[in-house]
Each structure stands twice: as C-alpha cells, then as structure tokens.
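Worked example 3 (structure in, sequence out).
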C-alpha cells in the first residue's frame, strides 16, 4: 500500500489495534507503523505483545509503538484499559480486530458470557463505548472486524445474545454478524447525533498465516488445514494482504462512515481492498436495536453519543 492509501505523511495518526500480537492484528500494526503512524498494541498477553513489538521493529525502522493491556473477555480489564488509554494522548482510530475463532468447546468470559460473542462483540462493544470520548472528534474512526461468515448467521429474535445448542463455527458466525450489526448501527447513530467520528466495517476475506511473509516471533492464530494452504493464491491470501482492508478503513483517504471494506476479488475471498456489499440482514436496524439494548444490559456500559458533539 502507498503512503496515500495509509494516510501517512502529514496525516500521522495514533491507532489502537486490539489483538495486535498475532494474525491480522499483527500485520495491521506492522503496516500502520511502516506508514509512519503511532500504533498502540492492545494485547492481553504481555509476552506476546513484547514479541510483536520486537518483530515490528525488525521490519520497520523507527517504529513508534506503545502497549496497552486489554483482555476483551473480562469487562473489568476493558474498563481499566479505557482508563489507561487516556494517558496515551490523542487517539485517531480504533481497530477492533481481536477475537476468538471457532472454539470447539464452549468457554465463558469472566462475566459468564459465551466466549466468542463475549470477546468478539460484547468486549468490543464496551471498549468502543468507553474509548469513544478519547477519539479525535473531527477525524476519529472505529473499525470493526467483520467476516464473510455473517452470510450464514442469524440471531435469536427474542434474545440476540442467546447461544442455544453450542456449535463453535455457528457461534463464530453469530458473533461476527453481531459485530457488523453493531458497526453499521453505530455509524447511523453517530450521524444522527451530529458526530464526525466514523464507524466502518472491514473484513479480510479468507486469509491465512501460512500464506503471509514469515514472522518467526509471532505464533499462528490457529491451526490451518492443508487444503486451505493449497488454495492460497487462488481462493485465499496471506494475513498481511487480509489486513489491508482494515488498515485502509482506519487511515485511508476517502473512507466514509457506514462503509464496508474487504477484498475486491470473487466472492470477496481475496484481492485488494475495495468497497464491498454486506448481506441485507447485517443492516437490519430493528435487529441492531435489539442487539444494542441487549449488549448494554450484558456489559453494563452505555453509549453517550450526544456528549461527543
């Protein structure tokens, strides 16, 4: 990506990347640092965060990095991280990347919510509400990590956070639909409140650690089947390329609130960043309102959007 694509030069920004110690988050952080931005590595594991910093510094001269402890599976940690973020100076973008993918067995967060929805959606919901006042109110952006998995998901109409019979892959898809409903609804509510802060959803397509440039210090995010690696370059791409829509959504020129960025190739599986379409049910405002209310109740955190203006 060029400097123009990443907002470098005279538009140096501070960007917080959750889950920056591996996978898409790591590559997004490295790319942002290479473009001259200050990157806050928000991670739950201090050792992996330090390893990510070492790796970025090996590949980016004079990288400007900071650390923030953030465990999205513990709302107490989310609140503490938001307090700590206030000490890091003006923030221009939140890249809400961290997540749990397809846990085979059910696990719960510290507050008793199913882990994938609790981390991928509820943790980021609370984090965004608490960090939003710290964003630059003229140029701030919140980037939500969506997924093509949302195409296959539905939420319970009576309780959008309900798990039902646990299935790891189905629950992951539900968590990503929740993320996208929240991201698009936040864009609407920010606009209605007269805020200039943008809420943008982005997704990586089918992106693999094995197809990315080697980063020996960084542990793979999860095992990858051989058939997926064989498909690399045809229906998949490296996580370095998959991170590019997130980076563009965070700092790229011409990005508008409410947009959806992803790979521009067939079925949005691979390719360079492009404006893409989400399924209509990801834009369902009635469903989003139910989810928003349930999320505020589950997290005990409410948005004060009118106070931003």
């Amino acid at each position: 990506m060029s400097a123009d694509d990443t907002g470098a030069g005279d538009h140096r920004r501070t960007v917080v990347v959750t889950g920056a110690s591996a996978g898409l988050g790591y590559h997004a952080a490295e790319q942002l640092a290479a473009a001259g931005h200050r990157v806050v590595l928000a991670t739950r594991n201090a050792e992996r965060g330090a390893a990510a910093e070492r790796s970025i510094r090996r590949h980016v001269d004079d990288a400007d990095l900071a650390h923030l402890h953030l465990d999205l599976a513990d709302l107490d940690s989310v609140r503490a991280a938001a307090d700590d973020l206030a000490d890091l100076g003006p923030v221009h973008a939140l890249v809400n990347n961290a997540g749990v993918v397809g846990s085979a067995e059910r696990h719960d967060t510290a507050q008793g919510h199913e882990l994938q929805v609790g981390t991928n959606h509820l943790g980021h919901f609370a984090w965004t509400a608490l960090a939003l006042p710290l964003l630059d109110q003229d140029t701030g952006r919140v980037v939500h990590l969506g997924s093509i998995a949302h195409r296959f998901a539905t939420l319970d109409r009576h309780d959008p956070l309900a798990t039902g019979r646990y299935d790891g892959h189905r629950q992951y898809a539900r968590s990503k639909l929740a993320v996208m409903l929240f991201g698009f609804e936040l864009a609407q509510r920010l606009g209605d409140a007269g805020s200039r802060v943008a809420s943008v959803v982005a997704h990586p397509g089918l992106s693999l650690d094995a197809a990315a440039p080697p980063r020996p210090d960084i542990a793979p995010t999860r095992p990858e089947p051989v058939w997926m690696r064989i498909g690399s370059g045809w229906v998949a791409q490296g996580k370095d390329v998959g991170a590019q829509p997130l980076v563009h959504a965070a700092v790229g020129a011409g990005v508008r609130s409410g947009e959806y960025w992803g790979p521009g190739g067939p079925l949005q599986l691979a390719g360079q960043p492009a404006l893409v379409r989400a399924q209509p049910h990801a834009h369902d405002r009635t469903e989003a309102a139910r989810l928003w209310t349930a999320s505020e109740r589950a997290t005990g955190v409410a948005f004060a959007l009118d106070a931003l203006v």
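Notes: The first strand starts at residue 14 and ends at 18. The chain has one domain: 3-204+243-263+272-308.
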